[in-house]
Amino acid sequence: MTIDTPMVIIEPRAFGSRCCEGVTVDLSLADAQLLSTQLQLIAHPVRLQILDILARNAGQVCVCDLEAALPIKQATVSHHLRLLREGGLIDCERHGQWAYYFTLQPALAVLRERALGLLSAWA
Amino acid sequence: MTIDTPMVIIEPRAFGSRCCEGVTVDLSLADAQLLSTQLQLIAHPVRLQILDILARNAGQVCVCDLEAALPIKQATVSHHLRLLREGGLIDCERHGQWAYYFTLQPALAVLRERALGLLSAWA
DNA sequence: TTGCTATATTGACAACCATCAATATATCCT
DNA sequence: AGGATATATTGATGGTTGTCAATATAGCAA
């Protein structure tokens, strides 16, 4: 092996020959489902904005703040907050009539590492 | 500042006081939509598995390989391949009657950096 | 108590998505 | 040409998702 990378193209099977053999799935269906569920959770513009707002205003954001900052009605804000809470990415604390929401950073870190793990293996 | 983290809780606004002020959206709707569109693309178990298979078998995977490796029918495989291709994450090359698919690593790298950028800011 | 405000829930509706059978297209082989 | 194989497309169907109006719940204030 020299430092110059040799122009070897690995061809375990010639183009045009019999195919449909030897290709296996390294990423299990269970793992794929787990990750895709979490990605679905953040793959929505409003939820991305909510997470961004919460992350940048730790513990100081109530629902009406979000309603004022986002282009959706209160019921819809509550709906997305519920999804994020059920997905374990955020939680809230009630103080009087207000509910103050905040991110759960360990959960976000886990998600980041999981996603980064795959994406780094790919590119 | 000592090594002991002081138990100071930042309270720019007392709990229970008037809220709905001063909270702004740093992540623009346009940016959120762009990212969520790309996340949607990979937020599906089959598409995650397809990307993983393609990334680990550079240039050597035809549709019937995928059909054999995945729990879905050929029409559905083609459907997901089309979405991934239209999203710019993969492409294909025809050799005879086979279509060999492969990932577009620069696009995956861009996506990784974009996602990592936000997630790193959050956790 | 009565009324006001903040938040959650319910129910309805439209839009979107995943899947497959059937069919079309294209390429190879004889 | 005719048959076989690989892939793409179409159309139908069932399921999921996002949104909102209306309503419910709960705390606060007078």
Structure description:
- The structure is a homodimer of 123-residue chains.
- By secondary structure, chain A is mainly alpha-helical.
- Chain A contains five helices and three strands; from the N terminus they run ααβααββα.
- Chain A has a three-stranded antiparallel β-sheet.
- In chain A, strand 2 and strand 3 form a beta hairpin.
- In chain A, 29% of the residues are buried.
- Chains A and B meet through helix 1, helix 2, strand 1, helix 3 and strand 3 of A and helix 1, helix 2, strand 1, helix 3 and strand 3 of B.
- Chain A binds a DNA duplex (30 and 30 nucleotides) through helix 4.
Features:
homodimer; 123 residues; mainly alpha; three-stranded antiparallel β-sheet; 5 helices; DNA-binding
